[in-house]
Specification:
By secondary structure, the chain is mostly beta strands. It is built from two helices and 20 strands. The chain has a 16-stranded mixed sheet that branches.
């Protein structure tokens, strides 16, 4: 296992065997929403109610500017046993109100109940800047918020055991959309989960090329990469990270094929924050990455 100070490796060996089908995908449709979240309500309940009021099981949420308190989170950490390639810190519960700078959430279900996967960067009550993986248990909205969301119909992100990584991870599964959620004006959309050790940009580009997607907007984007290599030359050397996409899109590249442009932020296992545009071909997924593609232009291929 690499030391946290080493340059990030190209791959990380996972405890279980790699499975076929490195991208899990469910095609469907979706709609941009504004989700109104009330204060003094657990975050998971508030988001669930806001999606349900619009007829959706879930989707993605941009968490910029949201105030939380009480608040619970973990950060990435080196593995404690061979059962995992990397792990989490102990739970951290800062006092007072924490305000998120930026964040991305995938919202779905775990064991039949509402659940989310959310990574963010924030400022705590004492002024400390930090980031990590927000825990549904013990996290409450400290103030009302109106946040952009994207409701996905035709599937849902379901948290299920993943033998390759030995974690329970979100992945899309088909689900019948409610009649309330159907709208002929909705965009074509694809819910994706990327498995480990494939380049994040490259995997998205290959998927879009295979499905005739010429241009797309990325909603959500929660996961981890093996360290990070940014377009400006910055390298994040610790390999264990928690990351999210701040802004992402797919568009025609110089060769006419799909090209991913991803602005991301992350925290690594030393607690250091980093952000920037990902260098294409240089950022393999560590554990998982899930997101929704809103199709803006397509060739007519399925």
């Amino acid at each position: 296992m690499p030391d946290a100070r080493d340059d990030p490796p190209a791959t990380i060996r996972q405890p279980g065997p790699a499975v076929a089908g490195r991208i899990v995908a469910v095609p469907g449709s979706g709609r941009a929403l504004v989700l109104d979240l009330p204060a003094r309500v657990p975050l998971v309940q508030a988001v669930h109610r806001a999606f349900a009021a619009r007829g959706f099981i879930g989707g993605t949420v941009a968490m910029d500017g949201v105030a939380l308190g009480p608040f619970a989170y973990v950060q990435p950490a080196l593995a404690r046993t061979p059962q995992h390639a990397a792990y989490y810190s102990d739970t951290i519960r800062p006092s007072g109100v924490t305000r998120l700078d930026h964040g991305a959430m995938t919202f779905g279900r775990r064991e039949g109940t509402p659940f989310f996967h959310c990574h963010a960067a924030w400022v705590e009550a004492d002024g400390r800047r930090s980031g990590g993986h927000i825990l549904p248990e013990g996290t409450v909205l400290a103030a009302p918020a109106s946040v952009p969301g994207f409701g996905f119909a035709g599937g849902v992100f379901e948290a299920e055991p993943d033998p390759e990584t030995n974690f329970t991870l979100f992945g899309p599964v088909p689900a019948e959309p409610s009649a309330f959620a159907r709208d002929a004006r909705d965009a074509r959309a694809h819910a994706l989960r990327l498995r480990p050790n494939q380049d994040l940009c490259g995997a998205l580009e290959r998927y879009c090329a295979a499905h005739g997607i010429l241009a797309a907007r990325i909603h959500g984007g929660v996961g981890s990469t093996i360290g990070a290599r940014f377009a400006d030359g910055t390298v994040v050397r610790p390999f264990a990270t928690e990351a999210f996409i701040r802004h992402g899109r797919i568009g025609p590249g110089t060769d006419g094929g799909p090209e991913a442009m991803l602005e991301v932020a992350q925290v690594d296992c030393t607690g250091a924050l980093a952000a920037g545009r990902m260098r294409r071909g240089a950022n393999p997924v560590l554990m998982t990455y899930e997101l929704v593609l809103e199709v803006l232009d397509w060739s007519g291929m399925r």
